[in-house]
Amino acid sequence: xxxxxxxxxxxxxxxxxxxxxxxxxxxxxxxxxxxxxxxxxxxxxxxxxxxxxxxxxxxxxxxxxxxxxxxxxxxxxxxxxxxxxxxxxxxxxxxxxxxxxxxxxxxxxxxxxxxxxxxxxxxxxxxxxxxxxxxxxxxxxxxxxxxxxxxxxxxxxxxxxxxxxxxxxxxxxxxxxxxxxxxxxxxxxxxxxxxxxxxxxxxxxxxxxxxxxxxx
Length: 216
Description:
Elements: E1 2-3, H1 5-22, E2 31-32, E3 46-51, E4 58-71, E5 94-97, H2 101-109, E6 123-124, H3 127-135, E7 140-144, H4 145-153, E8 164-176, H5 183-203, E9 212-214
Domain LysR substrate-binding: 2-195
Protein name: Gcv operon activator
GO molecular function: DNA-binding transcription factor activity; sequence-specific DNA binding
């Protein structure tokens, strides 16, 4: 299978033992790819794509809706620069994933353009790098609910504010339409879709009664 390095590191690999126990006769070969993809390579059975789900000729199953939320180390919640509301972002370094676009959208939706400077802070090429920078107290990351879940569950990251961005994109499991129900592909689809479904309710706490801003 192929997927992004960050999704592999932050989500798939920590859960893969569950598949190995359920299907000991199937060995998974994981190929991490940095580029955006719109079709399966000849040597790939299944993949995780990120987008709006419109890839002609492929079976697509949405794994998770995506919410972008600010996260930081618990250590940043105390001290002279406490994070109590979004305006307090002006006191901290912003950590960016690939570009400054997400933070720009977040600040714009909250009408804080004149308060928070999104043109500061380092830019990382992978989500996993942004998350690790946040874990080590280097600033505030705006990351998605799926990537950050393990770190939040472990207490290494916290969500300082309730405001989140709801993305039009999502993570999808994709495979060739005519192979979706065959052997090892069907087994992996059944496992990963079940895994995602069991966790989706836990991720839903983000939208709850909180203020939500939609990425346009």
